[in-house]
């Protein structure tokens, strides 16, 4: 797509923005009939022509006029007709003013409340498709608001907004939409979506106040019952008067803010609309029939309190207000009362925040699609596997260094104890028992946990090498590189890379360890390495004499073989103390390690290494994919 339109179709006002695929600028708010904020109203003329915007509210040629119909979309099927006519009128204006060209490569991002489910969103999207709009996507207005905040030069919140908990409060004409954002992801709240409270209700309160003070109250109410267009006309006039007043409250405190509306239904009647500080205070804080006997302030703050109570996690550090009503100081004051620990902000033009954010979502989604394509290509290549292969020997060394002593303690010593007690009768049987004990220990949770630190240490330099490939992908597509940084991920949590401990000790290496341990036992029995452990005391003298005779008769090598197959009497076994065996193991620990390392270089099991490289690479690739999935609202 070359261009992205953002269509914020509100219940009272609408706006349309546009941004190019490669534009570095903020989305532009389009002007339609010389205005950027379009009144969400249409008038159907006798000729069949449809007028949209402010002119639709005033034209005397209307056979049907409608405003504030979006709020009924989920509850009133008839509202589809009103939405359709308005959307048709907007499409015609876009073509007529040259903002849209038939057949161009573009799409529309259209906002909806966060609380709409997938079925409602699809129904809404289909409506625009039926009319003939270019391809359209329906996007949560809360997501659009956050994207706009991230990209707003006015707010200057930068990348931090992706890591801070944020509450987005979108105050529309008929509803207020709450959405909680944590780490750039929208989190569902029980009150998320449409709360039936908006700026349009203030209009109803003001209009009701004007009717009650009018000498022609009953006649005008009759006109409103008979003619919806005239009622809509007066509601629109009230809205404009309210906006006029709140745009400069200090000025109107000393001046009259009023307007007379001429109603020409059967006989001309004039309705005076007025707002002053007392009326404004009553509108916001007084109990109102239209609000079920409650005040606007109480309903709004109660909704905020409910949202606060349902936040499962950190309270928002930032509350971001959107919608024209958010300009009111009273609104911001109420938010600060409920969230005193939060920074409360709005954009410079809050009425256009959603429209700009929607267009930006289009550009961002395109970047995300291209980003995922490139990442998938990296994952499908052999790059990560090749990097793991370059580092695999270091992983072996780290894990062997970690596991040798625990293996000796948890496998070798228990087998020695069993041989010494006579449970294992011949030294040659030790081979099989040791192999089983070692394999059993390597399957334990204790052995697996021992590997966590060496694996983490090994992954860190590997992660740096991988980022030489992932950082450029992020940079090309405006994705914060931290979103795909294994180094940052390792700093936050233990990466979920699993290695089977038994694979670190290949079959050949286990055999090497067993041979070493058995040779230690034979050496202890035979006085190997200059140590004659069984030649002390009276029994030792007898044993020493026997062994000397064996050496003379059989020779040292054959004698050692004989000992391996002999059923050595228990009295001789007891002479080989556990302390002596442990001491010999300690002295040979470094030698065992060096033998392992030499064995890695010359006899490493290529099948096991290949499987480890493949499995580790696959787990890293899965980790990168999971990390990429959370990149929902990156910055441009």
Task: Give a topology summary.
Blueprint: E1 3-9, E2 13-20, E3 28-29, E4 38-39, E5 41-45, E6 50-52, H1 54-58, E7 62-67, H2 79-96, E8 106-112, H3 118-131, E9 136-140, H4 141-151, E10 166-171, E11 176-182, E12 185-187, E13 193-195, H5 199-212, H6 217-226, H7 228-246, H8 249-252, E14 257-264, E15 268-275, H9 277-285, H10 296-310, E16 318-322, H11 329-338, E17 343-346, H12 353-380, H13 383-420, H14 430-442, H15 445-450, H16 452-476, H17 486-492, H18 501-504, H19 507-526, H20 537-554, H21 556-565, H22 570-575, H23 578-603, H24 606-629
Parallel strand pairs: 1-8, 8-9, 10-16, 16-17
Antiparallel strand pairs: 1-2, 2-3, 2-4, 5-6, 5-7, 10-11, 11-12, 11-13, 14-15
How does this structure look, described?
This protein is of the alpha+beta class. It is 56% helix and 14% strand. The chain has 24 helices and 17 strands. Strands 1, 2, 3, 4, 8 and 9 form a six-stranded mixed β-sheet that branches. Strands 10, 11, 12, 13, 16 and 17 form a six-stranded mixed β-sheet that branches. Helix 4 packs across helix 12 (353-380) and helix 12 (353-380) packs across helix 16. The longest helix has 38 residues, at 383-420. The chain is elongated. It starts with a strand and ends in a 7-residue tail after the last helix.
How many β-strands, per DSSP? 17
- Beta content comes to 5-15%
Mean pLDDT: 79
Roughly what percent helix?
55-70%
Indicate the structural class: alpha+beta
Shape: elongated
Question: Oligomerization state of this entry?
Answer: single chain
Give the N-terminus to C-terminus distance in angstroms: 17 Å
Total of helices:
24
Q: How many whole angstroms does the radius of gyration measure?
A: 39 Å
Query: Low-confidence segments, ≥5 residues, pLDDT <50?
Result: 491-495, 528-556
Largest β sheet strand count, sense and barrel closure: 6 strands, mixed
